[in-house]
Amino acid sequence: MVITGDNGKCRPVHPWLQDTSSLKLLNSAAFLLIATGTLLGLTFPLGKLGTQAGISPVVWAFLFSCGASLALIFFRLVRKQPLLINRGNIVFYFVAATVSLVLPNVLTYRVIPELGSGFTGLLFTLSPLFTLALSSVWQVRMPNRLGLAGIAFGFIGAVIVAITRGEVGNPASIGWLLAGLCIPASLATGNVYRTMAWPEKAQPMELAIGMNLAAAAMLLLLVGVSPGISLPGGLQTIPLTVLITVLVTSVMIALHSRLQFVGGPTYLSQIGYIAAGVALLLGMWVFRESYSWLTWTGALIILIGAMLSIKAQRS
To answer: Is residue 295 part of a domain?
Structure first.
């Protein structure tokens, strides 16, 4: 059994990707998109709880990667499965971790206090546009016309949202908005790089563990050389939030890597649409964040784009 890869070439399907009843949902790009996007959306309000507790963005990003990688390793050990870490893929782990985890996570948790958790989530909706542009340049998998329409709607909605610049009565500066825009640009680079450089015969779980261990190592080094930052850095003051964050990120990262293989880079990038809606609703409900009608109009247009993209993938 073979599938067409992101570079247009045929490659064998690994045994873990065979369509069995127990893995049917995990082979569904639409299910993976919704599940991964929802879990990603949950990380924004969790990150805001961390910043409110005085946790450094670097420490919180370290929790994200270290907690997720250790949880995934524990899961494989309990099931008596090999860890799969391949020393030959070290360069891939570190490059992918830098652009996919370290940069976007540190930026995300830094701008949340300035832009709000809901608005920061909406910035992720620009990731498909950046991914599409990079995919076109590097000739990676391209969406069909319906998929392009979905991305166009998502972009229009994101532009409308960006104009509002955050919460009502508390607009962010242009500088913080530009810093926020670096998040989807970095994520898009990671989406395309992982697809182009995906190691031969590598399993999604292997890459998820390897990338997060690499990210945790880099962030630990950053903690060590940064004045005024140390571990546990206040994490012990919010144990329940820390536990929930580790559980959410562990499942999200496992599904994220599988979605990368099943759906390709442009489709993967659209988890931002789902995450934005979840982050907006939770920001309003949990933190009483208030957004203008223009922000909600943009969010609705983004939702239409997400629905078109899902339909395009199914067709």
So the answer is: yes
